[in-house]
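Milestone 3.1: sequence recovery, worked example.
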């Protein structure tokens, strides 16, 4: 089912408003006040036709024998890494919680609102067993677990509200919880105050996984192919969408995440989107982890969801299973409107273009911004 969004072509960018599954919002509104559908964006406007340098690399052969394509990024990885289930770690994203440790090594990063408009991250790692320090780590929410399930990941968290209890107790749920018998997998540092000082490492997690007799190999609960990927040798430049893929070299998410006010800037030299935040009050603050490495992504997905508060504390429920919501997909300095669907707990969230075809991501890391259907963001 195709849904429309309301957007205005402004000097600063294109304003995008999320639509609910049953809403009938108009399409983009141009300066002439002419309303068009999402696929009828004018090809004569420079903002849709500007040439953007595309980085091409020859990645047709593995760097060494025995390497295979990663399920998460399509990069070449050792076969043992590809066959090992990832971990999905709950990470706070507040000023008192930064810098994070080894966050830049995550293959996929999710962000969504929790109570009081705070955002929390979920970092999905492969090749995690040798990571020395991971975190810091905070409590879980049910919706993050459903995204972790898509990757058959070990769900790593430090407790959570009672709303998560039933889901964590299900037979197929394999989690490592610092407020349970798994406390030995976590430790507190002295460099910051509680509750922002909880960490783990790959060795400790592996010990608990073995103690639980969890399988390190994929259990067959998820689709073997999650994302569709283009190679670096033949990247997806979104040119197949003619005039319906506007330039997107700056993506401002502050309308959806008003406390972190994060944004992404596209770098044509390496073809990556670099993440910035405003947590300390600075106007131009790169989001770096403790190593000083700035978070960067080849793909950025914005996914609208229906969200409701569960109680007076503001705990949220997000509709993770749906077939009637939309969003946007950004890569190589351009973007397209998409629709998404997820039809089971362990089934993948799949994204489709306005022609009904599943999108093709580019090889590399992916940032997935989960946003309220009533919030807005801008890009240009």
């Amino acid at each position: 089912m195709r849904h429309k969004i309301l957007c205005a072509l402004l000097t600063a960018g294109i304003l995008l408003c999320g639509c609910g599954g049953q809403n009938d919002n108009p399409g983009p509104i141009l300066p002439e006040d002419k309303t068009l559908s999402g696929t009828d964006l004018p090809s004569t406007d420079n903002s849709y036709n500007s040439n953007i340098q595309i980085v091409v690399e020859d990645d047709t052969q593995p760097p060494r024998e025995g390497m295979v394509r990663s399920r998460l990024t399509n990069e070449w990885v050792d076969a043992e890494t590809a066959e090992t289930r990832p971990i999905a770690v709950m990470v706070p994203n507040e000023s008192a919680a930064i810098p994070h440790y080894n966050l830049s090594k995550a293959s996929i990063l999710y962000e969504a609102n929790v109570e009081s408009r705070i955002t929390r991250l979920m970092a999905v790692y492969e090749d995690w067993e040798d990571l020395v320090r991971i975190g810091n780590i905070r409590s879980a929410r049910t919706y993050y677990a459903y995204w972790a399930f898509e990757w058959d990941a070990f769900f790593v968290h430090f407790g959570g509200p009672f709303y998560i209890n039933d889901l964590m107790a299900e037979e197929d749920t394999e989690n490592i919880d610092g407020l349970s018998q798994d406390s030995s997998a976590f430790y507190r540092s002295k460099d910051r105050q509680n509750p922002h000082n909880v960490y783990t490492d790959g060795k400790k997690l592996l010990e608990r996984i073995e103690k639980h007799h969890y399988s390190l190999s994929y259990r067959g609960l998820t689709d073997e192919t999650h994302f569709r990927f283009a190679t670096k040798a033949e990247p997806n430049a979104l040119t197949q969408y003619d005039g319906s893929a506007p330039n997107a070299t700056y993506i401002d998410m502050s309308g959806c995440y008003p406390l972190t006010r994060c944004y992404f800037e596209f770098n044509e030299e390496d073809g990556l989107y670099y993440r910035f935040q405003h947590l300390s009050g600075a106007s131009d603050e790169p989001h770096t982890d403790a190593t000083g490495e700035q978070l960067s992504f080849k793909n950025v997905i914005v996914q609208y969801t229906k969200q409701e508060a569960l109680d007076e504390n503001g705990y949220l429920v997000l509709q993770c299973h749906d077939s009637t919501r939309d969003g946007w997909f950004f890569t190589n300095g351009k973007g397209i409107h998409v629709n998404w669907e997820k039809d089971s707990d362990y089934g993948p969230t799949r994204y489709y273009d306005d022609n009904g075809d599943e999108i093709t991501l580019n090889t590399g890391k992916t940032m997935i911004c989960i946003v309220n259907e009533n919030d807005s963001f801008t890009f240009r």
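Residues 159 and 172 are 18 Å apart (CA to CA). The two ends are 27 Å apart (CA to CA).
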